[in-house]
Amino acid sequence: MTKKPFTTRLDPSILALAQQLAETERRSITSVIELALIEYAERRGVEISANKSE
Fold first, then answer.
1. 27: closest CA among 39, 18, 40?
2. What's the Rg (C-alpha) of the chain?
């Protein structure tokens, strides 16, 4: 899967939380946010398909 860059704005406290989680889990902030989105979609029964975004 090709990853596409994008710009976003986050509340400073949310960014700090993502940084803390990333450090604790030895991940990048991007991977923490990506995982959060995947888990959010799965909890709501949304099918995730890599081909839909391309």
1. 18
2. 13
What pTM was estimated for this model as a whole?
Answer: 0.76
Name which of 24, 46, 22 is nearest 34 in CA terms: 22
Look at residue 16 and tell me if it is in a domain: yes
Q: Please count the structural domains in the chain.
A: 1
CA–CA separation, 16 and 50 (whole Å): 28
Domain membership flag for residue 4: no
Question: Is pLDDT at 54 greater than 50 in this prediction?
Answer: no
